[in-house]
Automatic annotation (TrEMBL):
Location(s), subcellular: Membrane
Record family assignment: Belongs to the OB-RGRP/VPS55 family.
GO annotation, biological process: late endosome to vacuole transport via multivesicular body sorting pathway
Chain ranges passing through the membrane: 15-32, 53-71, 77-103
Pfam families linked: Vps55
GO cellular component, one term: membrane
UniProt keyword terms in alphabetical order: Membrane, Receptor, Transmembrane, Transmembrane helix
Membrane topology: Multi-pass membrane protein
UniProt entry tagged with the keyword Membrane: yes
The protein's name in its UniProt record: Leptin receptor gene-related protein
Length: 113
């Protein structure tokens, strides 16, 4: 989040358009969480539901990387702001993947947390 805020708040940029990627950060885990809840409560394995959720999640992730690039190509934001936003995207999504990986392990000692 620091890179995204820097992409918006540094004096040479002065535009808050890159901050719209935060909406994608919020929306990203929702389809997967809904699909996991649905497959857990149904009792069986519903692969089509999970695959649809992963497809929607990947669309959200691609959109969050595409938004700053499109804004930079349209000269709405500067390229350094785009690079800072992309770096922030990588860090945030690695954090989300790490969270789901660690807390999804049921056979590990990490599940005791």
């Amino acid at each position: 989040m620091t890179f995204v805020i820097l992409a918006c708040a540094l004096p040479q940029f002065k535009l808050w358009w890159p901050f719209f990627v935060v909406i994608f950060y919020i929306l990203c885990p929702i389809p997967t969480m809904i699909a996991r809840r649905h497959t857990d409560s149904a009792g069986g394995t519903n692969n089509s539901c999970m695959e649809t959720a992963i497809f929607i999640t990947m669309g959200i992730i691609v959109s969050s990387f595409a938004l700053p690039i499109v804004l930079a190509r349209a000269s709405v934001i500067l390229w350094p702001a785009c690079y800072l936003t992309l770096a922030g995207n990588v860090i945030v999504y690695l954090t989300i993947i790490g969270f789901f990986t660690i807390f999804d392990m049921e056979d590990s000692d990490y599940a005791m947390w």
